[in-house]
Inverse folding.
C-alpha cells in the first residue's frame, strides 16, 4: 500500500488526524519538500513529533528513480509525505499512477492547501478563482521581467472577472528540506515584478498561511513592493471583479483602499 499524506501548511501539527495515524502506522515513510515545504518545522522535528524515520527524496529521487518508494509500497505499507495537499502536484499524481501500474494499492489523505487558505484568509470566494500561475525568479527563465505566460494567464483571468492566485518561486538545494540551501521569493519582490505590468492594480499578499500569525495585506502592487512581510512562505492574489462581500472582506481583513475596490 502506498498512502499519500498531505502535511498541511505550516508545522508538524498541521497534519490531519487521519494522516497522522497513517504516518505512524507505516512501515516506511518518504517525503519531498522541493515542490513546497513546512516553514514552521524541520524534518528532524517531524520525525521526533511522530516517532518515525523519514527518508527524504529530491526531485530526481521521485520523478526519475521512484523505485525505492514503489518497492517499499509493494512489500508493506509506505507513506509519501508532502507539504500542503498530497495531490496538488503533477509529480505526485505520476507517482501514484506508477504505483497502480505495478499493482500497488494506493490511497490519499488530503491536507490543507495554500489555495484554500488564500481564499479563506482574504475572503475571496474559491469558485471565483481562475487559472493559478507561478512567478519564477527572473534568473530561472533567463529574463528580468514577468514571463509572457504569466502575463497572458493573468490577463485571461481579468477578462473573465476572475481572481488569480500567484505562487512564488522556491529554490531548494538541501534534500532534507531544512533552511540551508533554500531561497524563497518574497511578496514584496513579486509585487515589484508584477508592478512592471500592472503598477496600479490591486494585489493581496498572504504571508505564513496556516501559522499562528498569518498576514493579509491588500494595496496597489507598487505599494506592496515597498513593504516587508516577514518570514516565508508568501503568495499573492490579483483580484478580478469582486462581489460586494469580497470587497468588504478585502477592506476589513486586508486593509484594501476603498478607491481600489470601487
Amino acid at each position: 500500500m502506498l498512502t499519500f499524506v498531505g502535511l498541511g501548511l505550516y508545522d508538524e501539527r498541521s497534519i490531519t488526524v487521519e494522516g497522522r495515524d497513517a504516518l505512524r502506522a507505516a512501515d516506511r515513510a518518504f517525503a519531498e519538500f522541493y515542490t513546497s515545504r513546512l516553514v514552521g518545522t524541520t524534518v528532524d522535528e517531524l520525525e521526533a513529533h511522530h516517532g518515525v524515520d523519514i527518508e527524504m527524496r529530491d526531485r530526481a529521487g521521485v520523478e526519475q528513480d521512484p523505485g525505492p518508494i514503489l518497492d517499499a509500497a509493494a512489500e508493506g505499507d509506505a507513506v509519501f509525505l508532502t507539504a500542503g495537499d498530497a495531490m496538488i502536484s503533477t509529480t505526485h499524481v505520476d507517482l501514484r499512477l506508477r504505483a497502480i501500474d505495478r499493482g500497488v494499492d494506493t490511497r490519499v489523505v488530503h491536507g490543507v492547501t495554500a489555495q484554500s487558505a488564500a481564499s479563506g484568509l482574504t475572503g475571496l470566494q474559491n469558485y471565483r478563482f481562475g487559472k493559478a500561475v507561478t512567478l519564477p525568479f527572473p534568473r530561472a527563465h533567463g529574463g528580468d521581467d514577468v514571463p509572457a505566460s504569466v502575463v497572458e494567464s493573468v490577463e485571461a483571468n481579468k477578462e473573465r472577472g476572475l481572481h488569480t492566485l500567484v505562487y512564488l518561486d522556491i529554490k531548494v538545494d538541501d534534500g532534507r528540506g531544512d533552511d540551508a540551501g533554500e531561497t524563497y521569493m518574497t511578496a514584496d519582490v513579486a509585487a515589484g515584478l508584477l508592478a512592471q505590468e500592472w503598477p496600479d492594480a490591486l494585489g493581496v499578499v498572504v504571508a505564513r498561511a496556516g501559522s499562528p500569525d498569518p498576514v493579509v495585506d491588500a494595496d496597489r502592487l507598487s505599494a506592496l513592493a515597498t513593504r516587508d512581510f516577514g518570514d516565508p512562505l508568501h503568495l499573492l492574489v490579483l483580484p478580478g471583479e469582486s462581489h460586494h462581500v469580497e470587497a468588504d472582506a478585502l477592506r476589513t481583513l486586508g486593509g484594501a483602499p476603498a478607491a481600489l475596490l470601487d
Summary: The first helix runs from residue 17 to 25. Residues 91 and 112 are 18 Å apart (CA to CA).
